[in-house]
From TrEMBL:
InterPro entries: FAM107
Record carries keyword Transferase: no
Pfam family, one: DUF1151
Region span, Disordered: 1-24, 73-110, 131-162
Keyword annotations of the record: Coiled coil
Protein name: Protein FAM107B isoform X2
Compositionally skewed regions (Basic and acidic residues) per UniProt: 83-110
Keyword Coiled coil in record: yes
Top-level taxon of origin: Eukaryota
Phylogenetic lineage: Eukaryota, Metazoa, Chordata, Craniata, Vertebrata
Amino acid sequence: MKYKCLRQGLAYNGPPENSDPKDSYLIPRNIMAEPDYIEDDNPELIRPQKLINPVKTSRNHQDLHRELLMNQKRGLAPQNKPELQKVMEKRKRDQVIKQKEEEAQKKKSDLEIELLKRQQKLEQLELEKQKLQEEQENAPEFVKVKGNLRRTGQEVTQAQES
């Protein structure tokens, strides 16, 4: 009797003073059938257990939930960050990315370093050639003629010597 009352959420005040077996219909009873696993008579029955939610048990979820609760208590909304704080966080992220790229460049092999040096030298030579061509194209006509005369004069002297 005591167990049934507690299970149904009723307070148990002891047996009724005038407890007759005939008055047992006055005792409030649960309309639903009682499950078999409540009684400890049969140890072979498998008792149901609450399923575990893997999302809620994950550490990341718990940390995020805790942080959200703390922010809610303080009155801070996660999306309402000041603009200055957003800018500072973006700068910090960019700085971290830049540091990682620099570390990756430092870890380059000797072959890669040598290839980069050769590539830079070739680029410098190409730039110098372009500058010379632009200077020759932009030079006045008499300078071009003078250069041609010098070349032909040198060719003539070399031909006479040989």
